[in-house]
Write a structure and sequence with these properties.
By secondary structure, the protein is an alpha+beta fold. It folds into two domains: about 1-135 and about 240-360, no CATH class; about 140-230, no CATH class. The protein has helices at about 1-40, 50-80, 85-90, 100-135, 250-255, 260-285, 295-320, 325-360, 365-375; strands spanning about 150, 155-165, 170-180, 185-195, 200-215, 220-230. The chain has a six-stranded antiparallel β-sheet, with no helix packed on it. Strand 2 and strand 3 form a beta hairpin. The chain starts with a helix and ends with a helix. Residues about 235-240 and about 365-375 have low confidence and may be disordered.
Length: about 375
């Protein structure tokens, strides 16, 4: 049908243009923030592009929801402003009739948002957490540069090397100062290398000597060695340790229904339900008078989007704190929003029907109105 194809074509064009603009703005913001984290030492500068890709995938559901919502509002608002809606209403097309073509375009996007929320969102958060953790737990020997004294990650060791092989795993003329509860020790060696065994990292020194000082008795001991091994840094990162709920898979959250895990499930479910509710809200909020050249509809729509997503964040906090259950929260936030969107559509439909009925009422001529009085 001409009506369906025309409306879907306009919506798809508006959705594509809006998504490109939002992606450009959001990626620029995240790039600035990621570069700041790299400059501050929180992330590896070599992983900036990779982190930016993961962060973009994490926030893609929200960007898709906003793009779809703006596309519906702007397209229908333009149709009201250009009097196209008046023509369709006069032809017998009701406002409820717009639901079918709009939802036919929106449903594939909503399915993609659901998959991103339940699959890609935890995967992206997990990759970001592992990249940051791996950089923070990198080898103490990898932290230093030739000719510079460098403190280890725990602050208990001071390293110095004369030369290295370029990959950070082997070094020559190594100096190591260690402080612990038993005293202080100084170790020097001709060469050293990093050895990984299980989840631990060791530095293995060869052909050197070690001097230990007891701070209580001031006793000093010296020893020479052909090979000496000392643990450096913390354990290697494990993909299943200390992960936040947002980095856990959906099945793992279902198997362990703690309040924090249920709150994360409420958030992911809310992304899909929110996209559907925003489409219905967009149809109702786009109505306007073509004789009034104003953009209040778009402002009201953006305000509704901000309020709705703030409620989505609040619902996650309510469930995590144990104030409300997950089903109660979903019904309270998304159920009431759905009811409000349907009520708005019914009110707009009723107002349009009354307006068309008034226009179709016959107006009596001046001669006809004066005839009874003349008699």
């Amino acid at each position: 049908m001409l009506f369906d194809s025309t409306l879907r074509r306009d919506l798809s064009r508006s959705f594509g243009a809006t998504l490109i603009v939002i992606l450009t703005i959001v990626i620029t913001m995240f790039m600035i923030r990621t570069l700041g984290q790299a400059a501050g030492g929180s992330v590896d500068p070599r992983d900036v592009a990779l982190l930016l890709g993961y962060i973009t995938l994490e926030n893609l559901p929200t960007m898709l929801s906003l793009s779809l919502f703006i596309a519906v509002v702007t397209t229908l608002t333009r149709m009201y402003r250009d009097s196209e809606m008046v023509i369709w209403f006069a032809s017998g097309v009701s406002l409820m009739r717009f639901l079918r073509p709009v939802l036919r375009l929106a449903m594939p996007v909503i399915v993609i948002i659901t998959l991103l929320a339940f699959v890609v969102w935890p995967w992206g958060n997990r990759q970001v957490a592992e990249l940051k953790d791996r950089y923070q737990r990198r080898s103490d020997l990898a932290r230093i540069a030739p000719g510079q004294f460098q403190t280890s990650s725990d602050g208990k060791r001071v390293f110095f090397i004369d030369k290295d092989t370029g990959d950070g795993s082997n070094a020559r003329n190594v100096f190591l100062l260690e402080r612990n509860a038993d005293g202080e020790s100084v170790t020097s060696a001709r060469s050293g290398r990093v050895v990984v065994e299980g989840n631990d990292r060791f530095v293995e020194l060869e052909r050197g000597q070690r001097s230990e000082l007891n701070p209580v008795t001031l006793e000093r001991r010296q020893a020479s060695f052909d090979s000496y091994r000392a643990i450096v840094g913390e354990r290697l990162v494990s993909p299943n340790e200390n992960l936040p709920p947002k980095a856990l898979g959906t099945i793992a959250l279902l198997l362990d229904p703690t309040p924090r895990h249920q709150a994360e499930l409420v958030w992911r479910t809310g992304l899909a339900l929110g996209a559907f509710n925003l489409v219905l809200l967009g149809i109702g909020l786009s109505a306007g008078n073509p004789r009034r050249a104003s953009s209040w509809n778009l402002l009201y729509s953006l305000l509704a989007f901000v309020v709705y997503f703030n409620l989505l964040n609040l619902s996650q906090a309510w469930v995590a704190s144990g104030r409300l259950g997950p089903w109660t929260t979903l019904l309270l936030v998304h159920g009431l929003t759905l009811a409000g969107a349907l009520a708005l559509l019914w009110w707009r439909e009723r107002g349009t029907a009354l307006s068309l009925r008034r226009r179709r009422m016959p107006v009596p001529a001046a001669g006809d109105a004066a005839t009874p009085a003349a008699r």
